[in-house]
Amino acid sequence: MKLDMHCHTKEGSLDGKVPLEQYIELLKSQGFQGMLITDHDSYKGYRHWKNHIKGKKHQDFLVLKGIEYDTFGGGHILVIMPENVKLRILELRGMPTHLLISIVHAFGGILGPAHPCGEKYLSLCRTRVYKKDPAIVNLFDFVEAFNSCEPREANETAHRLAQKYDKAEFGGSDSHKPGCVGRAYTIFPDWITCESDLIRYIKEGGKCSCGGSLYRHTTKDKIGKANHLLVFGFYFYNKIAGALRARKRYIKLQTEYIRHEKRL
Questions:
Q1: Residue limits of the Polymerase/histidinol phosphatase N-terminal domain (predicted)?
Q2: Helix (H, G, I), strand (E, B) or coil at 140
Q3: First and final CA of the chain: distance in angstroms?
Q4: Predicted pLDDT at 216
Q5: With 0-12 CB in 10 A as exposed, 13-18 as middle and 19+ as buried, what is 31?
Q6: What is the pLDDT of residues 112-146, one digit of tens each?
Q7: For residues 81, 83, 84 and 86, what is the CA-based torsion angle, rounded to 10 degrees?
Q8: Which residue spans within the chain are E strands per DSSP?
Q9: CA-CA distance, 147 to 8, in Å (whole number)?
Q10: Torsion over CA: 45, 52, 200, 88 (sign)
Q11: What is the per-residue pLDDT across 172-188, written as a single tens digit (0 to 9) for each?
């Protein structure tokens, strides 16, 4: 089963340019059987699938719910939760990395660093969190070892990181534009039909292969060194937004833990 494990939709990401249905059609035309929606701090793209497409179209195509979470100091992290878990706190950016790991695992999910060796501040290995404690990689369930929007050297280093810590390797296009869709893939067993199947497979030590081709029309490719200013600005925005949402996250976390305990 061939999946793209890092997908941004127009419905869910502010910088996404590809409507979900077009995304699905593009992937199907390239021989993909599924995708993981990973919008920035949002499940809006997946909600669009669930409310407007699921059961009506593309019933031969697997759409999994994920999110690309902006941590406070640890870069971008891909998160996959069981399909019956609604964890709205994941739509409130800015949690410390260790807290995110604890919460995701407490609710039965898995997570791993996106483009871990890519841009400073946005990628785990380019953050103080990692430099202070590289062994934090042990706490993750997988590593994104191939990202179509990152340089070859960054992907090779990410692959070595996954090998060093014996982590499953995911490949994702990180597509925001049509030309990037389908440039990365991950191969899984055909019996994976939902988030829980995938989570169980990874937790039980299942391996997967990944690869793809590089996309050379990203914003950083077009504007060169000026991209560092954008990244730096985003870093401070993330810090401020995370701090402002701290109390709201705390209240939401209490509510969701209580709901989870009652369900058990």
A1: 3-73
A2: coil
A3: 33
A4: 85
A5: exposed
A6: 999 999 988 899 999 999 999 999 999 999 999 99
A7: 50
A8: 2-7, 34-37, 62-70, 76-80, 110-113, 142-147, 168-172, 184-187, 209-212
A9: 13
A10: positive
A11: 999 999 999 999 999 99
Residues comprising the chain, all counted: 264
């305990």: which residue's tokens?
261
Q: How far apart are CA 27 and CA 112, in angstroms?
A: 23
Amino acid at 41: D
Rounded Cα gap, residues 144 and 140, in angstroms:
11
Q: Residue 53: which residues within 8 A CB-CB, separation 6 or more?
A: 20, 21, 24
CB 147 within 8 A of CB 141: no
Element (H or E) spanning 175, and its range? none
CA distance 119 to 213: 19
Which pLDDT value is given to residue 261? 52
Question: Residue 71: what residue type?
Answer: T
Q: Which pLDDT band, with edges at 50, 70 and 90, does 217 fall under? A: confident
3-48 pLDDT, tens per residue?
Answer: 999 999 999 999 999 999 999 999 999 999 999 999 999 999 999 9
Please give the mean pLDDT across all residues of the chain: 90
Task: Give the pLDDT score at 264.
Answer: 45
Nearest C-alpha neighbor of 165 from the set 157, 176, 174, 155? 157
- The owner of tokens 């081709």 is 213
CATH number of 2-263: 3.20.20.140
Query: How many whole angstroms separate alpha carbon 74 and alpha carbon 89?
Result: 17
165: exposed, middle or buried (Cβ count in 10 Å: 0-12, 13-18, 19+): middle
Task: Give the up-direction half-sphere exposure of residue 230: CA atoms within 13 A in the CB hemisphere.
Answer: 10
% helix, strand, coil for the chain, step of 5: 45, 20, 35
Indicate whether this model's pTM tops 0.85: yes
